[in-house]
């Protein structure tokens, strides 16, 4: 069928029925032959162009999770069924974001998402719209967003392209988040050559609401109106639909559609205020944000989650670009838009609130009593589908996976053979090299570009172990969140790597005194079509699900990002895990800084010789091999209990988790944060190098006032937690007795100069 | 009668709730004011705070669009009549755009948004918003902005210095290229004060670096109670 | 429909960190022979109806009261012809802001 | 010394929140009859030596690689004459970025 005969004519449902033989560019839209056959099967005819547009975006990997679904199921199947985490779950996986009960009538929703590929193409806008997208997910649950975090991965710190990507990403996250008025309370910055052509920009948002304010995306109630509000729809992110529009149905129009979306944080700020006001006035039945797949996604999901059908008049969608075709309107990913379902007699009040906030709002459809999603354009029906088949019944793949042949060799390459610092002088040099290395260096040049004060409830923010937000100013109820994920560990063993990510994040939350409750995760992996990457993914899911069960912290939601690779080379498997914890009174939080001379420094946990994937092996030798540190989740749980009790009972003045870089890195950070030195003694029986640089898990440093020492050590002994007194807060140097002494000023210079020198 | 201090919310205001909290902690009654309000007198407020944020996204120029909000006419009129007005960050930018205060705020010289705890010296302890401080006193409050470089022509700068209208100066390094390290200024009458740093974020030990910012609000309260 | 362009530049005596950052980067990028860079804003206004003296006067006022902050910025109003040439139709500085419409 | 101007504007299909904010404010300020506003950047470069074909080619390259982000922006290079008129000396879009120097 030649394109001309269709040019300027509308591919209506009727027309599709009459022209069964018409070829559609399903392949160009990313569908497989059998997927297209299934669509024809479902419809009992060929799809219209608009229907094809909807199916193709909704059945994409990004929207349908077709390769990951079978593995993600474990998060539900293995979810803990008892304990505080299980009891706190209010809304689980499947909604825009999970919701947990944090007590006192409050609920918290949080989720992490990726915006990796757009951020490589256009770092500023890619990262900015990443923040925008995750914030809309949180608003759509009925919550007020209260904080954001940004786990980031970049290529080598000294690579010229990193100088393009990092400053742009950071400025974009700051530019958008600061303008929205959300404090940035934490994140990660990791450099590794494996991310050179594929940086990871993950974004997390936390929101708070009262239980009764939880809203779900569904379109119940025949006759209820569907209101589209926020930005006008433009031609953003519709590469695929342009193919459809320009090649098949309207060959003459220019198919110049932007691949990059530009964010408008001011518009989003108005969306937040306007949505929350409408919620509080009880004007909303269901609500959905428009993210990937835009209106296709919003209408089909709202309709399929509800009881009835939906009828949409596409002509009523406010456009930024009047040349858009209906297919393009359905696929547009223009930012800062939301869709609400509102009872007819409340529509006027809803529109008034939008007017107050100067937000464009239009009724574009209504809920019908059928079970079809019908979309009209110029009075003709161009979509007539069962919305469930679009939104929920996409393809599911059992992709083949296989342990890569190089895995054994990698694990056999034990770091035990690497030359080590042999005396005090060399340990000193190794310490300076470590704290100055890009991954271990201070990130304040980056995080100072983020507002951490706005909203006035930030109790802890970077560089603390976790960010902490006060929820209720009367009672002091608060939540803490940390995100972690070590791709080097996961490369050595993806199953253990995922468990390690959870362990670290859990520990970081507990270090501040909060009780870990629930998990969100962003799984960043290579191509699912590569059996090796698929194996990494499967292993990581299995590991995370097992670990969540063991620790009693359910996964409440998250995001999968596949195809993170440059050519054949995949990134390190990078599961990023966010843990949310609760603290009854934020006044009891434990910060990381050594503040008072004379406080005793204890190391909790056992130190073994564990250097696989360690920061030291990377910094000193550029080495990655062996096995990652052992995970003992029972020990993590015990450690958390100790840290929480120490906070609650006022026994610890400071606590800091020990992770990459080992004890010496943690000591340096606590000293520099408080501007106080420390005198450290290597515990008997431990090799100084192993003591300082090993990355054994399940450990933390605490600073204990002398008056609390007996109480604290008794508690540790009673619970069976190894606690070694390793020194005292004192002076203005980090001194490891018998080995070396490093004046804080010198330490600070090395730790703080690296990032500004690279990017300033 | 309690003292009522209004806080204007423009579309894109962000630190309005913080300003209201600071007013409450200081012992006055915060009154939320919407930017479309035409007549301030109806709200019976004794003073007004223009809070921080990104009014209208700070598109065009910081404060340029907010300046034309309906409420601003009334704010200008009342300010000229002696009502205490405090502009924080975006509020300072708005005060400059309305010419209640001289000069303008430009892009930070290092071109980045910067959030840090900032040391300041109080240079004028006689304004409506600074009387609870002592001249020469050092305080630490958060600073967070992308366009905080204060500029004015030399004559204006000399005038400000000569008349003691530089209210705050940066210490410990100029964070944004402000001329003569100026962090905040006042009008001739001392009732209108604008500054880039955020005193409202330094009113509680738990969430701020210090509680040094409280003095702004207690100063206004005392003055209003006295008058 | 005609296009009127308003250019807004920082006054010469006001520090222009953005322009300076560009200029400082030039040698690194291998560009020589550019002695100064200033960065400003360009507004393209699509005007309905004729761009006559009256319309230009109104745009001039718009520029002066809104698009530019004349405490620190100067502006120029230009009319674009069909060839993409832009001819000045008035500039504004604090001093010469009145009656500058050509 | 001659002045070359590089104008950088968001591509027409890209959202321009700044221009929109300005446009939305106009009616409130009492300005009518302006149907669209786009906001972009203007760079004024002071060039040492003659602004010949070669110099313009280099400036074109500078604009393309540095001043504009051609993923989302188009640019125009103009030469300013003594009367303040600016004549185009090349534009760049993703499509037409090569050899566009007049
Ligand atoms: N991109 C970022 N945005 C915000 N905070 C960050 C970012 N990167 C690092 N941080 C913060 O810096 C601190 C140190 O980070 P990291 O060394 O990764 O902590 P940990 O090892 O304890 O997880 C943490 O408080 C973390 O939240
Ligand atoms: Mg930590």
TrEMBL record, chain A:
Keyword Metal-binding attached: yes
Positions annotated to bind Mg(2+) 2: 137, 289
Nucleus is among the record's keywords: no
Compartments reported by the entry: Cytoplasm
Catalysed reaction equations from the record: N(2)-formyl-N(1)-(5-phospho-beta-D-ribosyl)glycinamide + L-glutamine + ATP + H2O = 2-formamido-N(1)-(5-O-phospho-beta-D-ribosyl)acetamidine + L-glutamate + ADP + phosphate + H(+)
Known pathway: Purine metabolism; IMP biosynthesis via de novo pathway; 5-amino-1-(5-phospho-D-ribosyl)imidazole from N(2)-formyl-N(1)-(5-phospho-D-ribosyl)glycinamide: step 1/2
Active site: residue positions: 62, 115
Chain residues that bind substrate: 114-117, 136, 261, 333-335, 561
Function: Part of the phosphoribosylformylglycinamidine synthase complex involved in the purines biosynthetic pathway. Catalyzes the ATP-dependent conversion of formylglycinamide ribonucleotide (FGAR) and glutamine to yield formylglycinamidine ribonucleotide (FGAM) and glutamate. The FGAM synthase complex is composed of three subunits. PurQ produces an ammonia molecule by converting glutamine to glutamate. PurL transfers the ammonia molecule to FGAR to form FGAM in an ATP-dependent manner.
Family of this protein: Belongs to the FGAMS family.
Assembly and binders: Monomer. Part of the FGAM synthase complex composed of 1 PurL, 1 PurQ and 2 PurS subunits.
UniProt protein name: Phosphoribosylformylglycinamidine synthase subunit PurL
Originating species: Streptomyces spirodelae
Gene of this entry: purL
UniProtKB/TrEMBL annotation, chain B:
Pfam families: GATase_5
Annotated catalytic residues: 89 (nucleophile), 198, 200
Catalytic activity annotation: N(2)-formyl-N(1)-(5-phospho-beta-D-ribosyl)glycinamide + L-glutamine + ATP + H2O = 2-formamido-N(1)-(5-O-phospho-beta-D-ribosyl)acetamidine + L-glutamate + ADP + phosphate + H(+); L-glutamine + H2O = L-glutamate + NH4(+)
Compartments, as annotated in UniProt: Cytoplasm
Keyword terms, alphabetized: ATP-binding, Cytoplasm, Glutamine amidotransferase, Hydrolase, Ligase, Nucleotide-binding, Purine biosynthesis
Signal peptide (UniProt feature, chain positions): none
Pathway membership, UniProt: Purine metabolism; IMP biosynthesis via de novo pathway; 5-amino-1-(5-phospho-D-ribosyl)imidazole from N(2)-formyl-N(1)-(5-phospho-D-ribosyl)glycinamide: step 1/2
Taxonomy, superkingdom: Bacteria
EC number: 6.3.5.3, 3.5.1.2
Subunit structure: Part of the FGAM synthase complex composed of 1 PurL, 1 PurQ and 2 PurS subunits.
Function: Part of the phosphoribosylformylglycinamidine synthase complex involved in the purines biosynthetic pathway. Catalyzes the ATP-dependent conversion of formylglycinamide ribonucleotide (FGAR) and glutamine to yield formylglycinamidine ribonucleotide (FGAM) and glutamate. The FGAM synthase complex is composed of three subunits. PurQ produces an ammonia molecule by converting glutamine to glutamate. PurL transfers the ammonia molecule to FGAR to form FGAM in an ATP-dependent manner.
Cross-referenced NCBIfam families: FGAM_synth_I, PRK03619.1
Protein known as: Phosphoribosylformylglycinamidine synthase subunit PurQ
Species of the source: Streptomyces spirodelae
Lineage: Bacteria, Bacillati, Actinomycetota, Actinomycetes, Kitasatosporales
Gene of this entry: purQ
From TrEMBL, chains C, D:
GO molecular function annotation: phosphoribosylformylglycinamidine synthase activity
A Pfam entry, by short name: PurS
Gene3D superfamilies on file: Phosphoribosylformylglycinamidine synthase subunit PurS (3.30.1280.10)
Coiled coil: none
Pathway where it operates: Purine metabolism; IMP biosynthesis via de novo pathway; 5-amino-1-(5-phospho-D-ribosyl)imidazole from N(2)-formyl-N(1)-(5-phospho-D-ribosyl)glycinamide: step 1/2
Matches recorded under InterPro entries: PurS, PurS-like_sf
Ligase is among the record's keywords: yes
Chief subcellular location: cytoplasm
Statement: the UniProt record of this protein carries the keyword Nucleotide-binding: yes
EC number(s) stated in the UniProt entry for this protein: 6.3.5.3
Keywords for this protein: ATP-binding, Cytoplasm, Ligase, Nucleotide-binding, Purine biosynthesis
Compartmental location: Cytoplasm
Substrates-to-products reaction catalysed: N(2)-formyl-N(1)-(5-phospho-beta-D-ribosyl)glycinamide + L-glutamine + ATP + H2O = 2-formamido-N(1)-(5-O-phospho-beta-D-ribosyl)acetamidine + L-glutamate + ADP + phosphate + H(+)
Composition bias, Low complexity: 89-102
Region (Disordered): 82-102
HAMAP family reported in the protein's UniProt record: PurS
Entry function: Part of the phosphoribosylformylglycinamidine synthase complex involved in the purines biosynthetic pathway. Catalyzes the ATP-dependent conversion of formylglycinamide ribonucleotide (FGAR) and glutamine to yield formylglycinamidine ribonucleotide (FGAM) and glutamate. The FGAM synthase complex is composed of three subunits. PurQ produces an ammonia molecule by converting glutamine to glutamate. PurL transfers the ammonia molecule to FGAR to form FGAM in an ATP-dependent manner.
Family: Belongs to the PurS family.
Oligomer and partners: Part of the FGAM synthase complex composed of 1 PurL, 1 PurQ and 2 PurS subunits.
Name listed for the protein in its UniProt record: Phosphoribosylformylglycinamidine synthase subunit PurS
Gene: purS
